[in-house]
UniProtKB/TrEMBL annotation:
Transmembrane spans: none
Family that this chain belongs to: Belongs to the LysR transcriptional regulatory family.
Pfam families: HTH_1 (PF00126), LysR_substrate (PF03466)
PANTHER family attached to this UniProt entry: HTH-TYPE TRANSCRIPTIONAL REGULATOR, HTH-TYPE TRANSCRIPTIONAL REGULATOR CYSL
Source species taxonomy: Bacteria, Pseudomonadati, Bacteroidota, Chitinophagia, Chitinophagales
Alphabetized InterPro entries for the sequence: LysR_HTH_N, LysR_subst-bd, WH-like_DNA-bd_sf, WH_DNA-bd_sf
GO MF annotation list: DNA-binding transcription factor activity; transcription cis-regulatory region binding
Residue ranges occupied by any HTH lysR-type domain in the UniProt entry: 6-58
UniProt name for this protein: DNA-binding transcriptional regulator, LysR family
Keywords of the record: DNA-binding, Transcription, Transcription regulation
Length: 295
C-alpha cells in the first residue's frame, strides 16, 4: 500500500544515481525519472539538484527523505502487526535477558506485550550477557536482550535503548563525601565488581582501558553475581560499585544511595535485542517492534 513513487524517491535519494535505483527497483530509468517528476509536480518543488549525470538532494528533498523514512518504518510496523492479527498471533517466544535487563527493564514490556497479544506465550530466562549469547547460538532461546560490548559475527545486534552505568555508594559512607573524584582516587576505593562474562563489567573495563586503567588494577573488595546482592552489600558497607542507573531509581529516591561522578569518565552503553544471523521470524520482530514503540 506504500506509495511506489515515494519508494522510488527513497531509493534514488539513498543511491543518488538514477541508473542504480532503476536496477534495484527492477524498472527502467525513464520510469524512475517519471516517478520523480510526478512527485516534484505534486509538491511543486525540486527534490534534486541535477548536474549532468550527478544529482544531490535539495533542502526540500532532504526533508522529504526524512519523512519518507518515518513513513516506511510505520508501514513496516503496520504490515507486521496486521499479519500478526490475521494469523491470530499464536505461538511461543522464549526470551533470554542479561541480569540488569531482566530485573529492571524488560518485565514491563513483556507485560504490555502479553496484554496486546494474549495468545502468544512468553517465557524468560536470566543470566549474564555471555551466557545469553551462548543460549541463543545453541537455539535454547529465540531472542536475547542484553547489555555489553560483545559483538559475535554469527549474532545480529539491534540497539534498543541507552543505559548509563554510575559509581555509587551508600549515603552515609564517609570515605568520600564529595560528588566528583579523579580516576586516581577511583583506584583506591574498595569496589564490588561483577563476575567475568557480565556485560556491565565488559563496558566498565573497556572504558577504563581507554583511559589507561586496567580493571585488574582496581581495589576489588568482593565479586558478586547480581545487582540486588550488590545493592544489599552496598547498604551495609563503605564500599563502592558500578550499577545501571535503571537499577537504583528507588534507592536514589529514598536517599539510600548516592552517585559519585568520575572526572573525564562516562559509562554509557546500549541494550541490544539479539537474534541469530538470518533467523529473524515474525514473533521476534513483533516483540522488538513492541519495545521500540514504547517509552
Amino acid at each position: 500500500m506504500f506509495d511506489f513513487r515515494l519508494k522510488v524517491f527513497y531509493v534514488v535519494a539513498k543511491r543518488l544515481n538514477f541508473t542504480k535505483a532503476a536496477a534495484e527497483l527492477y524498472i527502467s530509468q525513464p520510469a524512475v525519472s517519471k516517478h520523480i517528476q510526478e512527485l516534484e509536480t505534486y509538491y511543486a518543488t525540486k527534490l534534486f539538484h541535477r548536474n549532468g549525470s550527478r544529482i544531490r538532494l535539495t533542502k526540500t528533498g532532504a526533508h522529504l527523505l526524512k519523512n519518507t523514512e518515518k513513513l516506511m518504518e510505520l508501514h513496516r510496523r503496520i504490515d507486521i502487526e496486521m499479519a500478526a492479527h490475521e494469523n491470530n498471533s499464536k505461538g511461543t517466544l522464549k526470551i533470554g535477558a542479561s541480569t540488569t535487563v531482566a530485573q529492571y527493564y524488560l518485565p514491563k514490556y513483556i507485560a504490555s506485550f502479553r496484554q496486546k497479544y494474549p495468545d502468544i506465550q512468553v517465557s524468560m530466562v536470566s543470566n549474564n550477557t555471555e551466557a545469553i549469547e551462548n543460549m541463543l547460538t545453541e537455539n535454547q532461546i529465540d531472542l536475547g536482550i542484553v547489555e555489553g560490548q560483545s559483538k559475535r559475527q554469527n549474532i545480529k545486534y539491534n540497539p534498543i535503548t541507552k543505559d548509563e552505568i554510575v559509581l555509587c555508594t551508600r549515603t552515609s559512607n564517609q570515605l568520600i563525601r564529595k560528588p566528583l573524584i579523579s580516576i586516581e582516587e577511583l583506584k583506591n576505593l574498595p569496589l564490588i565488581l561483577r563476575e567475568s562474562g557480565s556485560g556491565s563489567l565488559d563496558v566498565i573495563a573497556s572504558i577504563l582501558s581507554q583511559h589507561g586503567v586496567n580493571i585488574s588494577g582496581l581495589k576489588k573488595e568482593i565479586e558478586l553475581q547480581s545487582t540486588e546482592s550488590i545493592k544489599s552489600y552496598l547498604l551495609h558497607s563503605d564500599s563502592f560499585a558500578f550499577l545501571s542507573i535503571h537499577s537504583i531509581f528507588k534507592e536514589l529516591r529514598d536517599n539510600e544511595l548516592r552517585i559519585i561522578d568520575i572526572k573525564g569518565l562516562e559509562f554509557e552503553r546500549s541494550f541490544f535485542g539479539i537474534v541469530n544471523q538470518g533467523d529473524m521470524h515474525k514473533l521476534q520482530e513483533l516483540f522488538l517492534d513492541h519495545i521500540s514503540a514504547l517509552p
